[in-house]
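so i finally got all the pieces together for this one. its two components total, 646 residues if u count the protein bits. some of the lines might not be protein, just check the labels. i wanna see the whole assembly predicted at once instead of chain by chain like last time, that was a mess tbh
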Amino acid sequence: MPRNVRPRSAVRVGSPFTGLAPVFMKELADHLSSIRMMVLTLFVIVFGAFPVASSLQQLKSAASAVSTLGSSEVFLFLRIFTIEPEQVQIPFFAALNFIIPLMAIGLGFDSVNSEFNRRTLSRVLSQPIYRDALLLGKFLAGLTTLAVALVALWLIVLGSGLVLLGIPPTGSEVARALGFLVVAIAYGGVWLAVAMLFSVIFRSTATSALCALGLWLFFFIIWPQLGPAIAIALAPSEIRNLDQYVGVQEMGLLLMRLSPGTLFTEAVLALLSPETRSLGFVLPMQMRGAIPGAPLSFDQSLLLIWPQVTGLIASMIVVFAAAYVVFQRQEVRA
Amino acid sequence: MADNVIEARGLSKFYGTQRAVDAIDLDIRRGEIFGLLGPNGAGKTTAILMMLGLTDISGGSVEVLGYNPVREPLEVKRRVGYLPDSVGFYDHLTARENLVYTARLLGIPRSQTGRRIMEAMESVQLADVVDKRVATYSRGMRQRLGIAEIVMKKAEVAILDEPTSGLDPHATVELLEMIRGLKRMGVAVLLSSHLLDRVQSVCDRVALFNKGRIALMGTVVELANKVLGAGHPLLVEASGTDVVAALRGIEGVQRVMPDGEGAWRVFADRDVRAAAAQRIVSSGGSLTRLADLQPSLEEVYTRYFQDVRHAA
């Protein structure tokens, strides 16, 4: 009997990526043709284009002033993303900080449990693919969909800026704006992984959506208050020297950075406001010798946000890995 | 040995201390239809999932077409078609799009996909609705689409989990005919069910599952002999004479039991139909019915589980 010849081992045979491409293509097609995608696009337009339109109006007057001065050091183009328009009070990047998680959750909250509820999961898994390919294919398709939406939005902003301001962006502005796009996609990846984790854990799509949205609201509304409160609670009752003070401040910052939104905001600020010199806590004496308002070069800004970007990508991978482990251990039967 | 497509030896699955499947031995031969029968929760689906490598094996071994589903699930799943209990398809896609997705997952060359899908859909008589969305399909049509998927896959083994559950009688008959069609294509079919009379008509061999164990295995006649006792049961309907006395006098008759008004059930160790007819008519009675009772799986099943409960 051949069974006795073969070594009995737990190592499985065959590539985990078998079937990845078909899963990816199908999920992508589903996303792009779905009504949900249209709703999300509407979201993006309302929440993204509105701040941009009002900031552009404000910048238009500034642009004429700049063109007479002839200065290229003001990064007028990047201001589209960061300026706080008078009518809306939300800069574009802050609006993105808010809607990217919503889009990602919208794309991912039912990715696995809907297959389960439609009873397609066991049929698909009885085809020659591993669960790895199914989960990764779904994740990559979601991320690609998100990226498509963000690139479209980004191009619209850039294009309308070009038309309305009448000043072409400089090379470093384009590089920074591209960096912004990459950070935004990574940020979306984190929330997509979170949404997929919940879609693996909960069999009910409503529960999974509720949990993902709950986490999102927690990080947006509660955490900004709770983080500093915890830092203060943990602080020594009496601060005796500067080191202790810095310690408390850094603890607060560390807690805030547990939220992916904080990482995104910091990275985007450093990229889009080149004059940002530090994202941590800085004492006035450490700023001695610095020229206030002088911009950093692009590579220096990149160096500054490296930990934030690494943090975003790492948390995306960690959350995805958690979803993967849960999914592997799950029974496929009803 | 080479003719076995599935070989399970001591196959077990434990959930904690509960034994869902308890050391079953099973051989499925090439080209046969094998029925896994048993009450809900007897471990049929778990056994099937282990054969497909879709759930871990707690003990023992199983080999499907010479492959180990734990180590080589892709090889197993490439050759085995699976129709889960109340199969689902993507409702927003057409039947063709659903099958194209499966074909891509299977790695069927694009040039062949269209032809193979149409052939499969024709074999289950769904060719005319291939471009309709699956949302418009009835339950029976979905099951047939599941069979079409197996046909398109050119599977060597088809595993069907409760294929007829929830179908109306007409759809059930149609589906069973398609299962016979799979057999004609040389596919070995393993099906699980609790619809006994239907299963009886298609299965070459059956295994009776109870509490994770195979209680009985063999052809329907073998099982009947084992559970109901060997012999030729008869149903006699007659009047106008002392039927019981007449029947008791026949050589070979072991028992005569009343079975409703004017009807008796006769157990004999040989075929006594001719003698019974002669006896009743010659004694002045009128014989209205004389039927050879085929051993029914339902009877076997009911009797077996009755006995098990009594023994417990």
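The CA atoms of residues 120 and 148 of chain B lie 5 Å apart.
The interface with chain A takes residues 1, 7, 45-46, 49, 52, 54-55, 61, 63, 66, 68, 70-75, 77-78, 80-92, 101-102, 104-107, 146, 149 of chain B (CB under 8 Å).
anyway lmk what u think
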